[in-house]
Amino acid sequence: MTQLTVTRTEPVTPVIRRVWFRSDDLSAFTGSGWTDRYVKLQFPDAVRTYTALFPDVEAGTLAIDFVTHGDVGVAGPWASAARPGDRIEARGPGGAYRPDPAADWHLLAGDESAVPAITAALDALPADAVVRVVILVDDAGHEPVLPLPAGAELTVLHRATLPEGHGLATAVRALEWLPGRVHAFVHGEAAEVMHDLRPYLLKERGLDRDQVSISGYWRRGRTEEGFRQWKAELKAAEATTA
Predict the structure, then answer these.
(1) Which of 4, 21, 30, 88 has the fewest CB atoms nearer than 10 Å to its CB?
(2) Who's near 42: CB < 8 A, 6+ residues apart?
(3) What is this structure's pTM?
(4) Mean pLDDT score of the chain, rounded to an integer?
């Protein structure tokens, strides 16, 4: 376990709050090259998984972005109320994705839940990287500021104005498919990501598994525990049809 102490907080968007931490020992992050690096935070009655941003082992600092929805959930209310000196324990980091430097271009897509990992991926890319980024947020006031390389093109979708049936998957399908080898990172609401975007990338576009990092971070209409059950059921169903 690593003990993290809050040093300050700041808003990233109206629903994303960044909490900065300090620790006497971040040695677990030494050599961690994943940009989707995550830690499991130990709250009083639950464990939640979050992307660790900008870890500095020597300085003992890192940041975590929390999606907040008022009093709903466990981690969001904690982050909203966090003050300097508050402490929390973390396990990790884990991770499995980093933009492939050999790829000709990169696709990064997701909703608010994926913004931290997308931010870390963009921060790791060279200035001349060719990137297509698709972000889904509530409205114009919720757009995050991203560290976009010069060769990046950003598409921001607003839920408030989207036609019925249109979302992240529709926008990704509408992108011009660039020549060369792509490396994709696509995460967000599980049903849209797993039932629409995953078949699109793996089957319709014919990408190899090592070209794609894709999974659901949450499930509409489900609690965290309900989402875990949904993932287990999906995994079991896919195993029987494999």
Answers:
(1) 30
(2) 1, 88, 89, 90, 91
(3) 0.85
(4) 89
